[in-house]
Automatic annotation (TrEMBL):
Superkingdom classification of source: Bacteria
Protein name: LpxI family protein
The LpxI C-terminal domain, residue ranges: 147-276
Domain LpxI N-terminal: 8-142
Length: 290
């Protein structure tokens, strides 16, 4: 069991979530020692940390050296990473891997670049160096989506039908490690997320369904490993859905982070976009077609 006086490491990508994570860690009385991934982290993040250093996305050796120097034995890894950078023409010059990352790439990842494989290999390598990657949600439990309708505004009967239709399809996409979101309308799939991310999928759904009224489903399997890549819904997501014509959102209860929850709920109510947390019983019923 970790010593409560030991600091917690934070490996931070983009978005608001790393800031919420840092706040939660400090509220629990622990120090925050942060590795901010270059060109990814929020500019304000360093002010929420007790120690901060920037490191390249594929400079795994530097992550480990920094965390060990700070005395970190447990760490969380949160925030989005723009995976499309992996396929830029000049990627080898802009993202030169260190020897540790290169070795892992050659031995394992060159044959399988799916998110869960990459993140699992990173977690294993951190563990071999004395740094345990822990549950992302441990210090931000108050921001997790609950079950049922989370907003004051309620879904219509048509939206209920669409979200129940969408759910088993989304779970199958998760099983295949394709994406964590899709858009549906009138029991028809409008758009599916791949590595472009939820925001770009939302924009595409708006272009494909100009009449609007579609439902966004975002979530993860009940067996989701909460150490990394936990689906996140923020205020910007609500604004993007509204702009693209979406009118309802369904998420996995206990498996999706609302960053930050009060602001997300308020934004959804202001936009008249109901948010529904799909619980385990509801998910089973949807999968059975009821």
């Amino acid at each position: 069991m970790a010593n409560e006086a030991e600091p917690i490491g934070l490996i931070a990508g983009g978005g608001r979530l790393p800031v919420l994570e840092a706040e939660g860690i400090r509220a629990a009385g622990r120090r925050v020692m942060c590795v901010g991934l270059a060109d990814q982290f929020d500019d304000d993040l360093p002010t929420y940390c007790d120690a901060f250093s920037e490191a390249g996305l594929v400079r795994l050796g530097k992550w480990i050296r920094l965390l060990r120097r700070w005395g970190v034995k447990q760490a969380v890894m949160v925030g989005y990473v723009r995976k499309a950078h992996m396929y830029e023409p000049m990627r080898l010059w802009r993202q030169v891997p260190d020897w540790r990352a290169a070795w892992l790439w050659y031995r394992v990842l060159r044959h399988d670049k799916r998110d869960q494989k990459i993140l699992g290999v990173l977690a294993d390598e951190l563990g071999r160096n004395g740094i345990e990657l822990i549950d992302t949600t441990r210090y931000i439990a108050e921001h997790m989506a609950g079950e049922g309708v989370l907003t004051r505004c309620q879904p219509t009967s048509g939206q209920w039908a669409d979200l129940r239709f969408a759910w088993p399809i989304l779970m199958r996409l998760n099983e295949l490690d394709i994406g964590q979101s899709l858009a549906v309308k009138e029991r028809d799939v409008i758009a599916v997320e791949a590595f472009e991310g939820t925001d770009e999928m939302i924009e595409r759904a708006g272009k494909l369904c100009r009449s609007g009224g579609w439902v966004l489903a975002k979530g993860a399997l009940p067996t989701k490993d909460l150490r990394f890549d936990v689906p996140t819904l923020g205020v910007q997501t609500i604004e993007n859905v509204k702009r693209a014509g979406g009118r309802c959102i369904v998420v996995s209860a206990g498996k999706v982070i609302l960053a930050d929850k009060p602001a997300v709920i308020a934004a959804a109510d202001a936009a008249k976009i109901p948010i529904v947390g799909m619980g385990a019983d509801d998910a089973e019923a949807a999968a059975a077609g009821s």
